[in-house]
Amino acid sequence: MNKIVVVFILLLGLTSASPVQAQMVEVAPGVSVSRKVYPVPANEAPFFNFAVKSDRMKAADDEFVSNMLKVMPDRAAAARRAINAGWSALIGPGDTTTAVKRFNQAYLLDPRESGIYQGFAAVVADRFKDYDFADELFRVAARMNAPSTALSADHGRVMLMAGRPHDAKPLLEKAIRDDPDWAGPRSNLAWATFLMGQVEEACRLVKEVRGRNMDSVTGDLELLKQKAHC
């Protein structure tokens, strides 16, 4: 085969193997995220699935915002109210559909609120298993207004779900500093440490798990002690 043709084929192969960069979309002043679209109705995905809205849809959004601000004129406060409603749907019954609708409503009210991106990240991880986009959204949340003390704990939990204990560990360590009296991040830190191959350290950390919601991690701790032979 002609050498030039061989080189061309190799270069073509290298080109086709290159990762495709996701399109970036500005979602708040100076803040852009990857344009991730999911096979669900627009209001059941973050940022309304990046759908191009018709004039009718825009009018409906404006009417919603106007009605909300009549009740609660402070946009940030109104957004946080919607965020809280989203978390109530997500944490209690695990209703990701309702949760993301509330987070989208909050986004319409004030796209600068951290809780919107944290909520979107949790939905993306739990419903769509898109851990890379969830990671991106958590990192955006850390830069936005009024981040929750639970942000690092949620981020670390999702990194564990993604099989990325090395990424989870520093986040969970921060989560413990942010909220020392919460058993969840302490339990997850012990797991991350174990999954990194640090068995003795994981057993030590198991003994330090304490705080509220201890009953929710008891089963996880017993399993970890069995696997690590603590």
From TrEMBL:
- Domain of life, per UniProt, equals Bacteria
InterPro entries found in the cross-reference section? TPR-like_helical_dom_sf (IPR011990)
Q: Which UniProt keywords apply?
A: Signal
The signal peptide stretch is 1-22
Protein name per its UniProtKB record:
Tetratricopeptide repeat protein
Q: Which organism is it from?
A: Microvirga terricola
